[in-house]
Amino acid sequence: MRSETESRPADDIRDTKSRRVFKGIGLGLAAVLIFLFGMGVGDGQVMLGNSTPKDGANKSLPANLNYATVDQVYDLLKTNYDGKLDEAKLIDGLKSGLAKATGDPYTQYFSADEAKTFNEQLSGSFTGIGAQLGQDASGTIQIVSPIDGFPASKAGLRAQDLIVSIDGKSTSGLSVDEAVTKIRGPKNTKVTLQILRNKTETLNVTITRDDIQVPSVKWQIINDNVGYIQVSQFSEDTSSLMLRAASEVKQQGAKTILLDLRDNPGGLLDSAVDMASLWLPHDKMVLQEKRGGVVVKSYNSNAHADTDPAFKDMPTAVLVNAGSASAAEIVAGALRDNNVATIMGEKSYGKGSVQEIHNLPSGAEIKITVARWYRPNGQNIDKKGINPDKAIKMTDDDYKQNKDPQKDAAIEFLKQR
Fold first, then answer.
1. Where in the chain is the domain with CATH 3.90.226.10?
2. Which of 326, 353, 367, 407 is flagged as catalytic?
3. Helices (H) and strands (E) in the chain, counts
4. Is 393 a catalytic residue?
5. Where does 127-213 sit in CATH, by number?
């Protein structure tokens, strides 16, 4: 999946000649090609390329739509609208409307400019506030996850904060991508967000935009022998950085691994499979995709059959929270269901669908939900999330005092292994 900060949970994206993204939240949690919180956050896979015909529930639809009434609306607008119409924007609006008519928040049409923004997010480089956006059950724009160290996080925004207005204008009816467009802007300019927290507390937060360039993986040795690996999203650099992380923390004496997937909105499916393969022996199930309840593809670990995975037999704890979506949930579920890790923290976001991205003429793209993904234990986590084996909450005081009881508890847990 690709995902953007300031997009929906990551959609999970898969690679063929097209890309698949797992991004959780339109993060908008995602929206990006990624199992992202949308902005892909989150949601996810994404594919780019030629469309492959798929059997499904839409066989009865006509080969082509009847555009007579569309032309009628166009004629009425052209004749009666008091203002200047733009032909390219009208056509983009038609395409966007077709995608929105599915009623699926992860199926979206991107104009050329929107596609460029989307791809920048997946590469981990853009200008904005550094937050993955999505929508809650009522369609309200929601912070899926703020990226640590960037303006949104520094301003105190949290996962599950609702964005009521942007620069004084209501977000009611906005898509995640529309919200992202309004929040992004040139470096050193400001944007004011009205936030509703815990459905009771209203905050006005003014944030200065900045360049957002985020390596997807950071690592270090903590507590003498714990290899701490923090993954912010599943990007194009994630697989190579994880290999470096595995090599370096082991050389530095790591005996256990703490994998931090909190506020990770998702991203590229291939990156998620590669990551899980560092713990799983060859050919273990990572996830399955189903259409209409029928398995269409299985993804298994890709470790070499004659080589032990890098983290074989190393006690592992995985931290998740409400900002962990899509590809992050794929990895957490795969490690848990294959009995190589313990999940700690809070229930994850719950994005269990897969998107494909297809290239269109003139740089436009369309992202389409093509399947649902299932954990090795057979569960689909859409709108349910993954419950941790050991639940640890973060309180308001913890945030204010910069405490991290979840990380502390995971370290204590690993000490006993």
1. 217-350+376-415
2. 326
3. 10, 22
4. no
5. 2.30.42.10
